[in-house]
Amino acid sequence: MRNEAWTHYYLVNGRVLTPHRMIAPGGLAIKDGRIHEVFSMKDCQIPEGANIIDVRNSLIIPGIIDLHLHGGGGADLMDGSAASIRKIAQTHAQGGSTGILPATLTNSLEDIKKALDTFSSEQEKTVDGARLLGVHLEGPYFSYEQRGAQDPRYLKNPDPEEYLELLERYPFIKRVSAAPELPGALDLGRELRKRNILASIGHTDAVYDEVVAAVEAGYSHITHLYSGMSGVRRVNCYRVAGAIEAGLLLDELTVEVIADGKHLPGSLLKLIYKCKGAERIALCSDALSAAGMPEGNYFLGSDESGQEIVVEDGVAWLPDRSAFAGSVVTGTQLLKTMVELAEVPLSEAVKMATITPARILNVDDSLGSLDPGKYADITVLRDDFTVVYTIVGGKIVYSS
To answer: Residue 188: which of 152, 162, 170, 169 has the closest Cα?
Structure first.
């Protein structure tokens, strides 16, 4: 079903998950790209001849916001091509995501600029896919010891001349991940806070006190908690907490988890939920180009300068199988993992995939919940978490 010509229509006979309750049977009125009304079917008065989509008891939730991914459908942001950006947006819309924040990788400054230049020309164009919320600069300011799949050839300390140029030239950079223990990283955090850009702690070997200093400098988020991250260690025989424990303990920090059912077992997902709660956890895919593709050999980054990866058993690996390289899931699969593996209530899982990431990215005034006046970014799904419709700005961009 396509609704390009509809400026006013109704979703009816669904189970509507609002910030306050489930309305079943219920529906939404969508007008001029925004949510106009949320209603119970018992009380609604739909005009005769109105445009109606009957979702047949499907679940209607706010559009899923994925604040950390690299690609999908065989494409990667680092390809530096308009076609790749469109393919990523379409692939994640098929998975139920309505808003995405694609990430760069640790690479040469030349290749990072190429990717950002291309994104700059594509961001405002109409795309039949997920809304492009900006870019996440992931790297190159990372710890060598916790680099994971980040290319070690390009790791470096934060360079003010370099990052100030990027932040000035590309105002759509909405998030930067860095290891706060590196020389210059605290100054980077202060600069990001001044510009209202999300400063995130990632690929870090920091100890607890270094994370506290980072929070004081402006860092407020943890990149893929547990992945590429220090934990408890011994220093002169004494145990010292790491970035993982700091992320769990400090209320000032929000965290994200790769909820693919591979990176973290159910026990750790339960622990994170118990420590942080749905208001401080964002679900993310960290999806690579192989998301939505068959298993096999792919690249992390562009085919020209990226690293080889292997997709087996539903996850991406480095070729030597020494570490995961990222995930291959999208959208509603994140909800499925949290509900079935972590045994989190559906309403709480939805918060972690919608309003919490919206709040972390400072877009919750217009996205993240089914409130009248917000953009009509909506995910409609079945009980088995398969997608029925993905709606962005009132337009159906995917229909099963």
So the answer is: 162
| Domains of the chain: residue spans and CATH | 8-61+371-399 (2.30.40.10), 63-360 (3.20.20.140)
Q: Do residues 272 and 281 lie in contact, with contact meaning Cβ atoms separated by under 8 Å?
A: yes
Query: CB of 7 within 8 A of CB of 32?
Result: yes
Catalytic residue among 286, 364, 371, 377: 286
Distance CA 32, CA 27 (A): 17
Helices (H), 218-263: 243-249
Alpha helices, DSSP H, located in the chain: 82-94, 109-122, 160-169, 185-194, 208-217, 243-249, 266-276, 332-340, 346-353, 355-360
**CA angle, 105 then 253 then 207, to 5°:** 75
Q: Which residue has the tokens 């470096």?
A: 156
Q: Both tokens of residue 273?
A: 């939920």
Whether 209 is catalytic is: no
Tokens of 220: 């407020």
Write out the H or E segment, with its range, that includes residue 67.
Answer: strand 64-69
Q: List phi, psi (to 5°) of 179.
A: -90, 115
- State pLDDT tens for residues 90-145: 999 999 999 999 999 999 999 999 999 999 998 887 678 999 999 999 999 999 99
- Separation of alpha carbons 298 and 318, rounded Å: 10
Q: What is the pLDDT of residues 261-311, one digit of tens each?
A: 999 999 999 999 999 999 999 999 999 999 999 999 888 876 666 778 899
Euclidean distance between the first and the last CA atom of the chain, given in angstroms as a whole number = 9
Helix (H, G, I), strand (E, B) or coil at 13: strand
**% of the chain with per-residue pLDDT over 70:** 98
Q: Per the omega criterion (within 30 degrees of 0), is the bond before 265 cis?
A: no
